[in-house]
Amino acid sequence: MAGTEPRRATARQPHAVPAFNAQAFLDTAGIAKTVAQYARDETIFTQGDGCDHVMYIRAGGVKLSVLSKSGKEAIVAMLGPGDFFGEGCLAGQPIRIGNATAITPTVILLIDKARMVRLLHKQQAMSDRFIAHMLARNIRIEEDLIDQLFNSSEKRLARALLQLAHYGKRDHPIRVMPRVSQETLAEIVGTTRSRVNFFLNKFKRLGFIDYDGDQPLTVNSSLLSVVLHD
Known about the structure:
Blueprint: H1 22-29, E1 34-38, E2 43-45, E3 53-59, E4 62-67, E5 73-79, E6 84-85, E7 99-102, E8 106-112, H2 113-122, H3 124-150, H4 153-164, H5 182-189, H6 193-205, E9 209-210, E10 218-219, H7 224-228
Helix pairs in contact: 2-3, 4-5, 5-6
C-alpha cells in the first residue's frame, strides 16, 4: 500500500537458558532418594567401593581424591551445594575409582543409578540440562588440575577460597565460607599448613578476606586480583 513503510525485520532475541536447579529437578521428578548426613572429615565412599548411586550435595562440601599404591593422596576436586558426584555409575563404572570425604558437616542425597537412568531417559529436557551441568563441573575440574600444575601456591589458595565461597557461579556468592581447617586447605592447595597460614594472614592484611582465628572466614571480591595477577 502506497505511503506505508515496509515492515522491518527484527532480530530474534535468543531465549536465556535457565540455570539448572538440581534440587528442583530431583523434587519435581518425584524420584526416590535417600538422605545421608556426614560429619566433617567423615568418609562418604572409598576407592573400590561398589558404585551404585549418584550423589547430590544438598549442604556442606565434599573433597574428591585418589590414593596411590604408596599411600600418597591427590585431591581431584572440591564440590559444594548443588553439585552431583559419583555419576560414573551411570556409565557402567562398577566400583569407585576415588575417595569422597566431607570437608564440613554435609547432607547428601543418594539416588539409585537405575532410577536415575530411567528418569534421564524419560525427561529429555532435564537430561540435556543435567548433562550440561556435569560438563561444566568437569571443565572446572580440568581447570583445577591446570591450576595445580602451573600456578603458585598463593594463587592456588586464592582460587580455592573463591571456589569455596561460590564466586563465579550463577547464584550469588556466599562470601562466608564453610568452616574448613587450614590442614584441609593445605591438602587442597598442595602445600604446608604453615604456608596456608602465612598467605591467609597476608590476604587479611591486604583486605582480601576477613579472618579471625576460629571465626568463619569471609571472602571479599578483591581476592580475585590475586588469581588474575600474572
